[in-house]
Amino acid sequence: MAVRGVVLVPVVALGLVAGGLWWWAVLRLVLVPEQVGLVEGAVAAGGWGLSLLPVHVTASGGITRASPRRRSGAESGPS
């Protein structure tokens, strides 16, 4: 269980940094649009574009509804 916590910390930190950069770029676009450069525009547009991805595009680590599941440990034979 500790291994998951160790792996999760860098992922959360990376997400917070990326989210902070996106908000910085969006606020610069809103507050001082005449001083915004190419980098701020690209960061803001990229973050907005990522928000448009549908949920089903993300990877699933578990059993999906379409996956076959065994209901018991015994194999079912012919009826």
Shape: elongated
Helix content: 55-70%
The CA-CA distance between the termini, in Å, is 43 Å
- Given helix and strand content, the structural type is mainly alpha
Radius of gyration computed on alpha carbons = 22 Å
Percent strand equals under 5%
Q: List the helices and strands in order.
A: HH
Number of strands: 0
Give a short account of the largest sheet: none
Number of helices: 2
Which ranges are low-confidence, i.e. pLDDT below 50, for 5 or more consecutive residues?
none
Overall pLDDT confidence: 74
Set out the fold topology.
Blueprint: H1 2-31, H2 38-51
Helix pairs in contact: 1-2
List its salient traits:
79 residues, mainly alpha
Would you kindly provide a written description of the structure presented here, covering whatever features stand out?
56% of the residues lie in helices and 0% in strands. The mean pLDDT is 74. The longest helix is centred in the N-terminal third of the chain and has 30 residues, at 2-31. Helix 1 crosses helix 2. The protein is mainly α and 79 residues long. It is elongated and about 75 Å long. It has 2 helices and no strands.
